[in-house]
Amino acid sequence: xxxxxxxxxxxxxxxxxxxxxxxxxxxxxxxxxxxxxxxxxxxxxxxxxxxxxxxxxxxxxxxxxxxxxxxxxxxxxxxxxxxxxxxxxxxxx
Length: 93
Hints:
The protein is an all-alpha fold and 93 residues long. It has two helices and no strands. The protein is elongated, with a radius of gyration of 30 Å.
C-alpha cells in the first residue's frame, strides 16, 4: 500500500530559483535571420493579436498571393510562348 507523506515530512524545494538575464539579441536576430528562440506564451487579454497586426497580416497575405500568381502566370505564358515559337520553327522547316 502506498502512502503519501505529509508536507512537513517531505518539504518541497525552494520555489525562488535564480533567474538568468536574457542576452540582448543581435541585429541579425532582430531582423529575423538566424536562430531566434520561440517567444514566451502570452496570457489573458494580450494573447490575441491587435487589429493592426491582423490587418497587416491580411494585406501581406493578399500581396503574397498576388505576387505568386503573377509569377506562375509568367512561367505559364513563357512556356506557351516558347512552345509556339518552337512549333512554328518545326512547321516552317
